[in-house]
Q: What sequence folds into this?
């Protein structure tokens, strides 16, 4: 997902120079001529992922603008631009909340290092915050990724259920994130901060299910060398998440029903029941009502669990959330793998959103993980997802002794005419820049056979900018014909 950088500078030349550098790297760029304009944008919903802020501007200085942004609750990272590299200036900017500073004129390399570092640090801080909340059992529905209609419904239902102790059954296909919803439900409830214990009922050894759930006394059976509390007692005061509840054998369903109804468990080998205070959240990818009709799931237990059902949507039904999910996974895997991937190329996101994802969010997560490991460019490319795109990663030229097949970048093209684009019309007047630009892009598409990476490189612009200009100029048909 392309990141937006807001450039705040009263000098239009400086803004254009910075935009040219950011465009080439695939960033979206917004402009503000003054501090007041920047504040209006950031507080009225326009937003940006990073702000480049000039310190010396008329009417409102950069320091005043930064102070007002922070006072208004805007936490977006800020890099200040200054012609004065004095220590006092830098210290004051950092104390006011700036994350970095550039001395003008800034080189393209220094600009991109600073922008990349600032965005990466912000994402890592957010990820650390989420992981900390999860470890403390305080993850909430605000931490769930997705603002599409399907996820808004999940968040609405979950937020209401969190206000009570009502049993919740989360249904949905495998890989949709049912446990994530369960953790948010727990973190948004009065039991937040108390234990959240997850049990995969389908993975429990048949002969140990009772002991694992309800505990056992020392010597209760062969191998019971010490007392075990069991999952119910581990979750006492908090929540017990019973994942894949449809996998539980019938004989254990009876004991589970009693534990839920009576609020007590009977440890294996114990002399008396033990009282518990546990909220039950269960989940399944099966149709429990069908299992009830087939006699493999108890009807009374089904009604006890299915008091408040929540349907977790499949990923193909919430494609609009894929960019945000990819962004979340990139942040996490960057930290885990020591990578510096900035995001996804526009054509890659389009491809990911068009895929059906039979394995849902789990499959997307694993695909991004593999892509992060494969990636060599700042933005993930379609060939980083070979199982989806069907494209192989381009081999380095020096990797093979055999002569490589000629590509657009290496083939010897015939010399181009000095003036392939007309700059004057039939009456001898200059044509508009828009007309000349359209002809130039169309000519480049034809010459380089529609290879957008090469066209963008030759024109000196970013690919996202090139794709935007192709759309604006109505050149999509020419691109298809060239391809």
A:
């Amino acid at each position: 997902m392309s990141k937006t950088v807001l450039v705040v500078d009263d000098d239009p030349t400086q803004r254009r120079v910075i935009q040219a550098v950011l465009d080439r790297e695939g960033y979206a760029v917004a402009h503000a001529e003054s501090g007041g304009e920047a504040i209006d944008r950031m507080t009225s919903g326009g937003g940006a992922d990073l702000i480049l802020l000039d310190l010396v501007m008329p009417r409102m200085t950069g320091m005043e603008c930064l102070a007002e942004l922070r006072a208004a609750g805007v936490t977006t990272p800020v890099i200040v631009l200054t012609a004065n590299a004095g220590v006092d200036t830098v210290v004051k900017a950092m104390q006011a909340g700036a994350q970095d500073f550039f001395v003008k004129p800034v080189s393209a390399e220094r600009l991109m290092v600073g922008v990349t570092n600032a965005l990466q640090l912000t994402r890592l801080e957010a990820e650390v915050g989420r992981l900390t909340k999860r470890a403390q059992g305080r993850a909430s529905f605000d931490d769930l990724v997705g603002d599409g209609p399907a996820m808004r419904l999940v968040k609405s239902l979950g937020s209401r259920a969190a206000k009570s102790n009502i049993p919740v059954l989360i249904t949905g296909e495998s890989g949709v994130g049912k446990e994530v919803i369960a953790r948010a439900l727990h973190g948004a409830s009065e039991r937040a901060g108390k234990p959240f214990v997850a049990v995969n009922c389908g993975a429990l050894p048949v002969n140990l299910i009772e002991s694992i759930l309800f505990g056992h006394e020392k010597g209760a059976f062969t191998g019971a060398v010490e007392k075990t509390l069991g999952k119910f007692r581990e979750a006492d005061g908090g929540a017990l998440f019973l994942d894949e509840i449809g996998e539980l054998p019938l004989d254990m369903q009876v004991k589970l029903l009693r534990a839920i109804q009576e609020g007590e468990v009977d440890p294996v080998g114990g002399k008396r029941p033990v009282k518990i205070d546990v909220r039950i959240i269960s989940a399944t990818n099966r149709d429990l009502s069908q299992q009830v009709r087939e006699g493999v799931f108890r009807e009374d237990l089904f009604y006890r669990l299915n008091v408040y059902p929540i349907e977790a949507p499949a990923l193909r039904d919430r494609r609009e959330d894929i960019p945000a999910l990819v962004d979340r996974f990139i942040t996490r895997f960057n930290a885990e793998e020591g990578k510096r991937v900035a995001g996804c190329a526009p054509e890659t996101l389009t491809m990911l959103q068009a895929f059906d994802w039979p394995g849902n969010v789990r499959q997307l997560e694993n695909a991004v993980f593999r892509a992060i490991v494969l990636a060599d460019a700042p933005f993930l490319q379609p060939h980083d997802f070979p199982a989806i795109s069907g494209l192989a990663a381009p081999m380095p030229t020096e990797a093979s002794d055999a002569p490589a097949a000629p590509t657009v970048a290496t083939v010897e093209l015939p010399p181009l005419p000095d003036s392939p684009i007309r700059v004057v019309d039939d009456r001898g007047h200059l044509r508009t820049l828009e007309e000349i630009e359209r002809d130039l892009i169309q000519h480049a598409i034809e010459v380089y056979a529609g290879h957008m990476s090469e066209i963008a490189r030759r024109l000196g612009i970013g690919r996202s900018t090139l794709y935007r200009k192709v759309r604006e100029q109505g050149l999509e048909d020419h691109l298809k014909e060239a391809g």
Notes: Confidence is low (pLDDT under 50) at residues 397-419.
